[in-house]
Every structure is written in structure tokens, then in C-alpha cells.
């Protein structure tokens, strides 16, 4: 029974809040105590893995002078080898193996940071995250776990955004894009394209035997990264700062948002992409109004406030209509 049926049934019988709660309880639409307990345990396990990884990094930093070079590397590599050994002992999809491989992926980043700090290679920060994403991919693939993929997507996006923001004249990405004389807004189309590709990959995975690797939240997270990158590219053009000549950084994201909106409206499965697009357009239009009325004082301030209230209200009302019409179930787009 989906949301539309629940709403129609409650409206037809005029159920009060107590009746709605009872109906949800009888239908099993709310998570049980056992399901909540299982979720809490999983969150605590994940928090433990992250705590161990953070503990390794902070212990190394706090005792930097107490270890020689060999000792520093030995500590981090010992944790990495131990995590791999545990994963081999209890390979995925066993939970222990997945947690161990996630730890191995995180410690890989710590190992790269340690190498750069020890030998002062001169590499840009984005190269650390890019190497982390590339060489840690083996652990992510072996984990067969959406959480590990989300961590990998996050590291990759940090690398791409650092590259676009710093524009370093070095590294593998600069060899690929440095000769094109791209503006900052145009460079920001790179993370937009990469995230859109990954989003399409998750959509394809949902329709295959690898559906367990691409849950709805991971699809949404990747799409949010894509829309966020496109929004940032458009903001750079709107704000200016010498980048108004890169108008493609504004036009390309708007075209992508249009195509994404049409795809979502055609699929009628999930309103989340539309929520992202509307939020982006509200932000972009508000910044544009602010840039246009920068000399208007309080009058411009009230106009911006009215615009935010109007657009947020209309957008929220439209999205809720789609939620009721489409329901809340179905595969994510």
C-alpha cells in the first residue's frame, strides 16, 4: 500500500491523527522495534569504524615526533594490513569484511597524506584525494557495499572541487585540461559530468543484478553532488569575479537541469531530482537579483525576501502535488 492509497483511505473515512497512526500500525508501514534496533546497531558499527580510522590519524599526528619515519609508516600500514586480513577472513558480503574494507579505504587516504607530509613531494592537495580515489577503488569494489561507494564518491568530488578551485598548474588533470584555457566555471562542469555519469551508472545498476549496490539514497547523493557542482558553476558566472566570459558555465548546467527535469517528469517515480533543481534555481535567481540590486539598500533586501518566500512556497506546493500524485514508492531516478 503506497502513500496515495493511505491518503485516500484516511480522507475517505475522515480519520483523525489517532486513526491514521492505528492504520499505519496495522499495515506495518512503520519500522518495528527490531528494525530500529538493527539500524541503530549498524550505525554504531559504522561509527566505530570511522572512530578507529580517525584514531589512527590523530594518534599519528599527536605522536609525530615520537616516531621515526619507519615507525610512522609501520603503524598506518599495520592497520591497513590488519583490515585487509580481516576482510580476507570474513569476505563480503559479511558485515565484518565490509567494515574492514571501508577502514582500509580510509586508511589508504591517511597513508597518502603521511607520504606527502614526510617527503614533501610538492604535490597539490587535489592529487592526494585523486590518488586516494583511484588506488582505493579496489577496496570499494571488493566491499560490495553502497556505503563504501558513497565514501568513494565523496573523496572523488573533493578531489575534483579542489582542482577546480585551486587551478594548480600540475597533476594529471592539468595535463588533460590545462591546455584548454578553461575558466573556473567551465572547469566546474567536470565534476558535473562525472557525477552525472555515476548517477546514470547507479540507475543502470538498479535494473541489473547489482541493484543492492545502488540503493535510492546513494543515487540521490550522487545526483545532489552533480546538481551542486552545476549550481556552483552557474554561481561563479553570475557573481562574476572576472569569469563572465565563461557563460557556458551557466548555460550548460541550465540545459542539464532541463533535461533532468524532463526525464524525472516522464518517469514519474521520484520528486527528489525536481527538489534539487528547484532549490538550485531559487538560489541562482536570488543571487542574480542580489547582484542586480546591490545598490538598492533596504528596498532590494525586501524584494529578495519576497522572492524567496514566493518561490519557496510555489515550489513546495508543486512538489507536494507531485508526491501525492506519484506516491513515494518506486525506483529512484
Protein architecture, described:
This protein has 333 residues and is an all-alpha fold. The chain folds into 3 domains: 1-30, no CATH class; 33-168, no CATH class; 182-333, no CATH class. The chain contains 15 helices and no strands. Helix 3 runs parallel beside helix 5 (95-119). The model is unreliable at 329-333 (pLDDT under 50).
Any low-confidence stretches, pLDDT <50, length ≥5? Answer: 329-333
- What is the molecular shape? globular
Class of secondary structure makeup? mainly alpha
Count of beta strands: 0
Give the total of domains. 3
What is the helix tally?
15
Instruction: Report how far the terminal alpha carbons are from each other.
Output: 21 Å
Q: What fraction of residues sit in β-strands?
A: under 5%
Average pLDDT, to the nearest integer?
A: 84
Largest sheet: none
Kindly state the percentage of residues in helix. over 70%
What is the CA-atom radius of gyration, in angstroms?
Answer: 24 Å
**Helix/strand order:** HHHHHHHHHHHHHHH
Amino acid at each position: 500500500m503506497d502513500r496515495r492509497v493511505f491518503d485516500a483511505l484516511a480522507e475517505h473515512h475522515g480519520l483523525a491523527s489517532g486513526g491514521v497512526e492505528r492504520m499505519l500500525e496495522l499495515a506495518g508501514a512503520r519500522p518495528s522495534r527490531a528494525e530500529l534496533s538493527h539500524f541503530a546497531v549498524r550505525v554504531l558499527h559504522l561509527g566505530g569504524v570511522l572512530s578507529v580510522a580517525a584514531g589512527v590519524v590523530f594518534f599519528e599526528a599527536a605522536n609525530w615526533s615520537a616516531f621515526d619515519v619507519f615507525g610512522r609508516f609501520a603503524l598506518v600500514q599495520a592497520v591497513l594490513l590488519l583490515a585487509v586480513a580481516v576482510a580476507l577472513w570474513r569476505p563480503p558480503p559479511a558485515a565484518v569484511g565490509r567494515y574492514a574494507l571501508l577502514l582500509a579505504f580510509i586508511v589508504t587516504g591517511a597513508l597518502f597524506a603521511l607520504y606527502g607530509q614526510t617527503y614533501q613531494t610538492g604535490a597539490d592537495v587535489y592529487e592526494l584525494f585523486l590518488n586516494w580515489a583511484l588506488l582505493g577503488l579496489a577496496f570499494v569494489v571488493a566491499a560490495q557495499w553502497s556505503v563504501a561507494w558513497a565514501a568513494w564518491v565523496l573523496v572523488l568530488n573533493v578531489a575534483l572541487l579542489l582542482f577546480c578551485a585551486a587551478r594548480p598548474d600540475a597533476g594529471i588533470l592539468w595535463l588533460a585540461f590545462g591546455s584548454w584555457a578553461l575558466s573556473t566555471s567551465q572547469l566546474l562542469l567536470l565534476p558535473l559530468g562525472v557525477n552525472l555519469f555515476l548517477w546514470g551508472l547507479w540507475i543502470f545498476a538498479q535494473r541489473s543484478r547489482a541493484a543492492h549496490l545502488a540503493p535510492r539514497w546513494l543515487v540521490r547523493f550522487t545526483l545532489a553532488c552533480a546538481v551542486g557542482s552545476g549550481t556552483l558553476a552557474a554561481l561563479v558566472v553570475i557573481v562574476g569575479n572576472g569569469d563572465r566570459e565563461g557563460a557556458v558555465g551557466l548555460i550548460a548546467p541550465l540545459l542539464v537541469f532541463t533535461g533532468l527535469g524532463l526525464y524525472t517528469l516522464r518517469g514519474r517515480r521520484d520528486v527528489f531530482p525536481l527538489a534539487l533543481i528547484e532549490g538550485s534555481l531559487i538560489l541562482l535567481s536570488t543571487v542574480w537579483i542580489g547582484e542586480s540590486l546591490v545598490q538598492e539598500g533596504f528596498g532590494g533586501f525586501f524584494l529578495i525576501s519576497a522572492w524567496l518566500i514566493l518561490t519557496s512556497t510555489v515550489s513546495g506546493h508543486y512538489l507536494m502535488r507531485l508526491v501525492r500524485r506519484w506516491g513515494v514508492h518506486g525506483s529512484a531516478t
